[in-house]
Amino acid sequence: MRKEFYIFWLAVALAAFWAFSPVSAKAAGEMDKIKQAGEIRIAVFTDKPPFGYKDENGDNKGYDVFLAHRLAKDLFGDPSKVRFVEVEAASRISTLEADKADIVLANFTYTAERAQQVDFAKPYMKVALGVASPKTAPITDVSQLAGAKLIVNKGTTADAYFTKNHPEIELVKYDQNVEAFNALIDRRGVALAHDNALLFAWVRANQDFVTGIDFLGDLDTINPAVKKGNTELLEWLNAEIDKLTAEQFFFSDYEETLLPIYGDSVDPKTVLITP
């Protein structure tokens, strides 16, 4: 009888252990954790208009932010159920690895190297590299940059591209977009390389500059990213991207956030993923 008594309480103790262990919590699902938290944490830029920035009231705005609110609406029925996490280009991966955000929506270009560290969902935008320079001394070919200083942001595809392909060019690197563009304005470099979709907007607001090189390297895509191994959230995101693409949500996003900046200077189909 005593043996059966001990077996019974051992079974109870083991059940309690598995119920409250990290393994069980993981088995409960990442989506359940997000729903229980009552909000989804999405990492965005705050200094990269028109994709992610803060307006005069301190509110998050931009193309990525518009998408983030829609994800919150589809998940919770309320577009306000999102907590924005501020990131720089170089901190996007570490933010996911440290579990500070559920999703990164910060103009995150897919690369094979990054895909070894995070899981990318399906793309929602197309992008290539561009080069902006002063109108008075336009850079129209990469050969003009040999021996000169080129401004880039740390951890971006521009940084990776020029480091790999053009060691003859001196790179001047900055963490923040504001720092990088101010460096160009102050002529601390002869040009600045960045995503062309961003440069198209910036030169319209800064008309002393031009994108002398509109397209450089490969045509890439911008994708949401989640922590490596977060399969459940990844699958939900992929289904969301498919649905939003089919209903042409991204054209609505473009008209709300990018069209006022681009005007008729950019064909939406050059940057949007179409059905």
Report the count of strand segments. Answer: 13
Based on the coordinates given, report the CATH architecture of the largest domain.
3-Layer(aba) Sandwich
Largest sheet: 5 strands, mixed
Helix content: 40-55%
Amino- and carboxy-terminal Cα gap:
69 Å
Q: Which stretches are low in confidence, meaning pLDDT under 50 for 5 or more residues running?
A: 10-27
Strand order of the largest sheet: 10-9-11-8-12
What's the quaternary structure here? Answer: single chain
> What is the name of the CATH class of the largest domain?
Alpha Beta
How much β-strand is present in the residues?
15-25%
What's the structural domain tally?
Answer: 2
Order of helices and strands: HHHEEEEHEHEEEEHEHEHEEHHH
Helix count equals 11
How would you characterize this protein structure?
This protein is α/β, with parallel strands linked by helices. The chain has helices spanning 2-20, 22-28, 30-37, 63-76, 92-97, 157-165, 177-185, 196-205, 231-246, 249-257, 259-262, and strands at residues 40-44, 47-48, 52-54, 60-61, 82-86, 103-104, 118-120, 125-134, 149-153, 170-174, 191-195, 209-222, 225-227. It has two domains: 38-124 and 223-270, 3-Layer(aba) Sandwich (D-Maltodextrin-Binding Protein, domain 2), CATH 3.40.190; 127-220, Periplasmic binding protein-like II (D-Maltodextrin-Binding Protein, domain 2, 3-Layer(aba) Sandwich). The protein contains eleven helices and 13 strands. The strands form four sheets. The protein has a five-stranded mixed beta sheet, with helices on both faces. A three-stranded parallel beta sheet has the order 5-1-6. The termini are far apart.
